[in-house]
Amino acid sequence: MTARQHRGLDSPAAAQEKPGLSPRPKNSLPSISVVAPAYNEQEVIEVFHRRVSAILVNIGAPYELVLVNDGSEDNTLALMHRLQAADPHVTVVDLSRNFGKEIALTAGLDHSSGDVVVVLDADLQDPPELIPEMLDGWRDGYDIVYGVRSQRDGETWLKKGSARLFYRFLQSVSRVDIPRDTGDFRLMTRRAVLELSRLREEHRFMKGLFAWIGFPSRPIAYRRDPRLAGETKWNYWKLWNLALEGITSFTIRPLKIATYLGLSVAVLSLLYAAFVIWKTLMFGDPVRGYPSLMVVVLFLGGVQLISVGVLGEYIGRIFNEVKRRPLYLVNRVLSSQLRAKTTPPPSAPT
Ligand code: UDP
Ligand code: MG
Questions:
Q1: Span 104-153, pLDDT tens digits
Q2: The domain containing residue 336 runs over which residues?
Q3: Are residues 291 and 330 in the same domain?
């Protein structure tokens, strides 16, 4: 499938070049690192390697493929080792256990050495055919060229709908402009990767972190293909937690909502109390009012519990951050030629 076909619509930013860009020479070629986190991807990892390599060879720049094994329980690591033995373009980063996609991705970025880094999912849901077009964006002077999903094949309407809702919500509450329908699929310059690697928070909502660093960015639209094989690792519970992560990492609005909710309930209760007192004075008080009492007690209890829960979400995250543990531990790294040649990048701060 060609890059054109993958683009459902024209790149919205193609026309509006920004001032402040320093375009690069038309035929310049950066060295390219493709970073892919993989967890139990034995069905696809070889196809992934083949398809991505073909494109990178075509581009003609020095390149490497950084495959991160995120504690897979299947044959993924063995297959990666085999690929690495046969192809000097492959770096294998084997993490000490499963750390989750966001951290595996960070590990891959830390171990990449190219002038530009392209992040891809190992399941080939992000078309590598778009890399040449991303390079065009790089030549135009952009630091970040990110894919925006114009279409998602092979996903249920519930997933699509909830994803859309989530992005809308996040955008409305967060001060950082987190682009909608954007995944991790993107090209970044070395300086963007270096800045990103300075953000070492444990609760990593990568889409938010990507947005936080800023820099000139250009979206390109693409059609997200269905997974090639294997299964998605995301269920609704995980997605819900990811959403919580996104919200709590980028806004404290829920804490404020709790305050205002508490305030309004308190004011309403006062008014109601005044009404009850007035009623008693005017009409006396035969013992009744059990229902209203229950309603008030339950309602207030609910409001308090929700507020405490919101507080808990944030305090839990503070607890995790203050421990300052390293983000991940590496079991073993096998370096590609490119990585071996370039001076080792500043090792991951711990
Ligand atoms: N992944 C990972 N660690 C995990 C879960 C997933 O490295 O704990 C990788 C996975 O191998 C894939 C990418 O993250 O390359 C995206 O995962 P998945 O396809 O399950 O997510 P989806 O595309 O459904 O959002
Ligand atoms: Mg996937």
A1: 999 999 999 999 999 999 888 888 999 999 999 999 989 999 998 876 66
A2: 3-250+326-341
A3: no
